Known about the structure:
Structural class: mainly alpha
Helix content: 55-70%
Oligomer: single chain
Amino acid sequence: MALEQYNFEVLKNEAESLVIKELDRQLESYTLPLCYCNDCILDMAAMALNSIKPLYRVSLLGSLYTAAAMDEKKYASSVRDAVFNAIEKVRKNPSHEIS
C-alpha cells in the first residue's frame, strides 16, 4: 500500500491548540524566574501534550466531537495541570545552561 496517496495533513490534534492557549495564559501570570527561549517554550508544550489524551480529528464533524471533549471539566483540568507541571519541570531542568 502506497501511503503517499493519502492526505495526512488533515489529521489534526486539537489538544495542541488547547495546550498552547493554556500555556500562554499561565505564562502571562507566571512570577518565578523562567527562560522564555524557543526551546524551553516548545519543551513545555511537548511535555504537556505528551501527558494528556490526544484529540485527533480529520473532519468538521470530528472537530465538533473534540469541541465537546474540550468542554468536559475533567479534560480541561488535565490540560491545566499538564501545562503547570510542564512549566515547573522545564523551569527546574531547562535543556540548556542558564547564563
